[in-house]
Design brief:
By secondary structure, the protein is α+β, with helices and mostly antiparallel strands. The chain has three domains: 58 residues, no CATH class; 101 residues, no CATH class; 44 residues, Arc Repressor Mutant, subunit A (Orthogonal Bundle). The chain is built from ten helices and six strands, in the order H-H-E-E-E-E-H-H-H-H-E-E-H-H-H-H. The strands form two sheets. A four-stranded antiparallel β-sheet has the order 1-2-3-4. A hairpin with a 4-residue loop joins strand 3 and strand 4. Helix 4 runs antiparallel to helix 5 and helix 8 runs antiparallel to helix 9. The longest helix has 13 residues. The termini are far apart.
Length: 213
């Protein structure tokens, strides 16, 4: 057994982790090592796979692929009394991009580690921070494109400024189809579609031009 473990580069502790379940995550196999700490590919109870450090698994810091937090946020959104506020949709979309693996922009946000600070999990506190500087026609942008959403890392910026702060977008055919479906089958404006998908207004206009009167 020891020879097999050595052949595949596994320590006894790593082999012991395989098959164990931590909250909603079941360890499948060790991931390719990219740092000093061992990481594992796990299957979540929702069916999705994710890579988690062994330390976070054992300490209970990571309990799901992200669906747990997304479910909580959806419940909060449903119950919240300020859901009619003009900035509420932006707050909800921000959380979806960071915590819902089913969101079509998750890979550019939550998928690469972008989170929302604890304070902004409460809509009233988010509103308290962002409303004083809000102006019509602006969209919420992170100053540090690799940092979290929070009161120390945000600004209201035009779509043009925000587009310069992003990496060049790579839009798939599926995303284009999803954008067009959202625009033609709902009452969403081009701006709202852009915010949901994380693209600037000029990009959205290009793909949605002429689809709806």
């Amino acid at each position: 057994m020891s020879r097999v473990l050595t052949e595949f580069g596994l320590t006894d502790n790593m082999a012991h982790m395989i098959g164990q379940t931590f909250s909603q995550l079941t360890v499948l196999y060790p991931a390719v090592k990219t740092g000093p700490r061992a990481r594992y590919v796990c299957r979540c109870s929702c069916g999705k796979s994710t890579t988690v450090s062994g330390t976070n698994l054992r300490r209970g810091k990571t309990k799901s692929c992200g669906c747990r937090r997304a479910s909580t946020m959806r419940k909060v959104a449903t119950k919240h009394g300020n859901s009619a506020h003009p900035l509420y949709v932006r707050w909800a979309n921000m959380h979806a991009r960071c915590y819902d693996p089913a969101n079509n922009r998750f890979y550019r946000y939550g998928g690469r580690g972008i989170k929302v600070c604890d304070r902004w999990h409460v809509f009233d506190l988010y509103l308290e921070d962002v409303l004083p500087s809000y102006r019509e026609g602006l969209t919420l942008d992170r100053i540090d494109n690799d940092g979290p959403y929070g009161p120390d890392n945000f600004r209201w910026a035009s779509y043009r400024v925000q587009a310069r702060n992003r990496s060049a977008p790579v839009i798939t055919e599926q995303e284009i189809a999803d954008m067009r479906r959202m625009y033609t089958e709902t009452a969403c404006t081009q701006r709202e579609v852009g915010e949901s998908f994380g693209y600037c207004r000029d990009t959205i206009k290009h793909y949605l031009r002429g689809l709806r009167a």
